[in-house]
Specification:
By secondary structure, the protein is of the alpha+beta class. Among the domains are: 40 residues; 179 residues, no CATH class. It is 31% helix and 17% strand. It has 10 helices and 11 strands. The strands form 3 sheets. Strands 6, 7, 8, 9, 10 and 11 form a 6-stranded mixed beta sheet that branches. The protein has a 3-stranded antiparallel beta sheet with strand order 1-4-5, covered by helices on one side. β7 and β8 form a beta hairpin. The N terminus is likely disordered. It binds zinc ion. Zinc ion binds next to β7.
Length: 324
Amino acid sequence: MPGRTLSIRPPSVMRAGVALALALGLLAADPVGAAETPAASVPTPPPLPPERPETLKPPIAEPAPPTPPARPPELKPAVAEPAKEPVKDPGREKAFESAKEGPKEGSKDFAKEASKPEIPTPPPAPPERPPELSGGAALALKVSPPDDTACRTRLKRLGVDFEPLAPIAEGQCTAPLPLKVTKFADGVALPQGATLTCRAAEALARWVTEVQVEAERTLKHPLTALELGGSYVCRGQNHDIDAKLSEHAFANAADIMGFAFAGRASIPVKAMPDGSEEAQFLGAVRTKACGFFRTVLGPGSNAAHANHLHVDQRERNAGHRLCE
Ligand SMILES: [Zn+2]
């Protein structure tokens, strides 16, 4: 037998193999049997790696991960409560499933989650939203409305009666800082009132003073009221729902249906006989409106404006105006 082994490997290699095997304790139990086994059946174990120096050895015991501090008793849910709930409550299981994904802030599950015993620390409560940032006010902040303070001061100096309204947000129809305008200088009334941006209200107020001048000059009767067909309306241009949103949808426009005077019949906005004082008055105030508004449309512009003057403050490229 040894002869066969020797014929396969040189004795020195054989001895080294046995020595290694012995060192590993593999042959201790049956050295004879091992000797009889051909070397092929006892593979040479790889040399042992050198002993690691003490300095490089990892600490014997890994430090245990820190355990969360024990919950104070006042935060623990009532001991009896979980037992009361049936184990197979599908609602609770469903709630648990959704809780794994993280409940929505403020949801019922959120509060439920916070009181569950398996969660050691409840997530911190979100900071309280300041009241001035909620609802419409928050929306208004998002669109960064212009500061209307200076405009409102001018409006007061112009003798306009107005009060601020809540921000308007009806789908795409928006007005972050609308005003309810009820009266102009000289007691010129707006019987229907008008919901307008400060800028549109200011333009209207300045124009009304010019209308008053024209009434005294052409008609010899003072203007007492402006009859409006509408100011803020959430709609498309020319009442076409498919059209681009009208400036009325931004409280940036007004439709003037007619003018009322002291001691004289009102003048409705419509085509008047050439040469009449009504035609002269309407023509003059319409031309003046082009100095205050970016858009002025009326009888003759198109069929939609045959019975009123539409005025608005639509922004156009390079400050272009539409005065027809
Ligand atoms: Zn209009």
